[in-house]
Amino acid sequence: MAVRLAIVGPGRVGTAFGLAAVAAGVDLLGFVGRSPAAVQSALRLCGRGRALHLPDLTAAHVVVFAVGDGELPAVLAAALAAGAARPCALWLHTSGRFGLEVLATAAAAGLRIGGLHPVVPFADAEQGRAAMRGAPGVLLPGPGSEGLLRTLAAHCGLVPVVMHGGDRALYHAACALAANGLTALRAAVDAVFAAAGGLAPAAAAGLASSLMRNALQACDELGPVAALSGPVRRGDAGTVVAHVETLAANVPAALPVYRALMAAAVALAEQAGLGAEPAAALRARLAAPAAGGVPPQTGLPSPAALPPPAGGFPPPSSD
Ligand SMILES: NC(=O)c1ccc[n+]([C@@H]2O[C@H](COP(=O)([O-])OP(=O)(O)OC[C@H]3O[C@@H](n4cnc5c(N)ncnc54)[C@H](OP(=O)(O)O)[C@@H]3O)[C@@H](O)[C@H]2O)c1
Questions:
Q1: Amino acid 292: pLDDT
Q2: Distance of CA 123 from the midpoint of ligand 1 (Å)
Q3: Whether CATH 3.40.50.720 fits 4-165
Q4: I need a labelling partner for 206 at 20 to 30 A (CA). Which of 82, 216, 223, 299 fits?
C-alpha cells in the first residue's frame, strides 16, 4: 500500500514537498491551508489530492507540517485538539528553527515525530522542488522515524544529514546568514555596480556572480582565513577610506553592509597574519563617519582622532 501523505501549509515548501511526493508515487491526500486560494493553487500544481481539514489528517500515514515558524506550535496544538492523531503515524515539520520539542505533545499522543529541514532557499514551489535535488536535508529523527524520514528525503532528492541535539536557533541563524545574507549581499553588490556605471547590466551581473562563486570556492578549498584577499587583507586603509567615501556619496544604503562585512574581514585578516597596527587603522577608518557625514551603524567604537592614512588615497583595488 502506498504511503498516504497529507500536508499542512500549502506554501512554497509544502507545495514543493507535494510535487516531489506525487512524482515519487506517494499517495498525496491533499493540503490543509488557511486560505482556500492557496490550497487550490497547490492542488493545481501537484495535480492530486483535495482540500483537507484538520480532522482529515487521521487518514494519513505521514503528515508534513510546512506552515511558518510563527504558526507551527499553534497549528500542531489545533491538529491534536481536532483529534487528528492517527496512532503511529509520522508527524514531521520542515522548520529550521524548531527541534523536536515542538512535537512533544504529539509524541505523548502516540505519534511518531521528526523533522526534515530542506537546506535550500525556496523562492517558490517549483524552483524549490528543483533545487532540492542533490541539496542537503537535515533530519531530526524521533524514536522509530528515521527510516521513513530517509525515504521522504530520498523522494525529494535530498541528501540526508542527521542532526543530534545542538542549538536549533543558532543552526537556523547560520542557515539564514548563508542563504538570505548572501541574497541581500548580492542585491547590494548589484546596486553598487549599477551606481559605478560603465558596464552593461548583464556584464556587471556576470562580474558579481563570478566573484561570489570564486570567493565561495576558495572558502571551500582553503577555509575563510586563507581565502580572504583584497584591501583589508593587505592592510590598505587608504583604499578602504576611498570605498567608504564613495559609498557614502553615491550608495549610502550599501555603506552599513560594507562597514559590517569589512569589519568582519579585518578579524579574518588578523588571523591570516595582518599586524595589530594596520588592523587597528582599518577598524578606525571603518568606524569613522564618512566625509559626507554618514555615521557608522555597525556598533564599532568611534576613534578619537584619525591621522590621514599612510600613502594617501590610492585608487581602489580590483578584488
Ligand atoms: N522558504 C524557505 O526557503 C524554507 C526553506 C527551508 C525550510 N523552510 C521552512 O518551511 C516552513 C514553511 O515555509 P514556507 O517558506 O513554505 O512558508 P510560506 O510560503 O509562507 O507557506 C506557509 C503556508 O502555511 C500556511 N498557513 C499558515 N498558517 C496556517 C494554518 N493555521 N493552517 C494551515 N495553513 C497555514 C500559509 O497560509 P497563507 O497562504 O494563508 O499565508 C502558507 O500557505 C517554515 O517552517 C520554514 O522555516 C522554509
A1: 65
A2: 12
A3: yes
A4: 223
